[in-house]
TrEMBL record:
One of its GO terms (cellular component) is cytosol. GO terms for molecular function: dITP diphosphatase activity; ITP diphosphatase activity; metal ion binding; nucleotide binding; ribonucleoside triphosphate phosphatase activity; XTP diphosphatase activity. It comes from Rhizocola hellebori. This is dITP/XTP pyrophosphatase. Keywords: Hydrolase, Magnesium, Metal-binding, Nucleotide metabolism, Nucleotide-binding. Pfam families: Ham1p_like (PF01725). PANTHER family: INOSINE TRIPHOSPHATE PYROPHOSPHATASE, INOSINE TRIPHOSPHATE PYROPHOSPHATASE/HAM1 PROTEIN. The lineage of its organism: Bacteria, Bacillati, Actinomycetota, Actinomycetes, Micromonosporales.
Amino acid sequence: MKLLLASRNRKKLEELRRILASSPDLLKVELVGLDDVPEYPEAPEKGLTFAENALMKAREGVKYTGLPTVGDDSGLAVDALNGMPGVFSARWAGRHGDDKANLDLVLAQISDVDDEFRAAAFVCAVALVLPGGKEHLVHGKMPGRLIRAPRGEGGFGYDPIFIADGHTKTSAELDPAAKDAISHRGQALRALAGVIAKNLG
Ligand code: ITT
Ligand code: NA
């Protein structure tokens, strides 16, 4: 059965597909993204919380497609920046989706911050909205710290400068399955798996 991810971020779509594919209950779920939906309206995110944004994305998806829809709103919360870039992670340096510029700006903003104060966490809210109107909201969080120069080719966004607690590789250096096992997105999706299976399985 079809499930829409109300996102234009191909890396997110790839990760969610991978996480679904690793859940035996969810093998029949076909995840489609907004690039597969013709003339989908631009939906600027205006919310001040991940939860609010995830719900807005998912509601919009149901409204325009009638499909059960997942919205993922996520970002990096940096202690030394009072939790920023947070919900502004995708456009921190000004241009939406410019991962390299966003990451460089965060590194520059904390260049004077000592190692013991470089804590950060990836955070994710995932909302599932069903055509009947039922809504489910879950969160995931991956705590860690930021290094001083990017490492690794995998993942996306801020992955090359982030090392999860208890690890030595950046999340861009981890195998995809290893990232999924600990990631904010992996946690959130696994928390929703039962509901998705029940409604779409
Ligand atoms: P949609 O709104 O279309 O889903 P988006 O990229 O704008 O796509 P968000 O507003 O949720 O999505 O912003 C997510 C940003 O947070 C993303 O662009 C990355 O910079 C960062 N981010 C989220 N998850 C990440 C991850 O697993 N690894 C690295 N960076 C991540
Ligand atoms: Na956002």
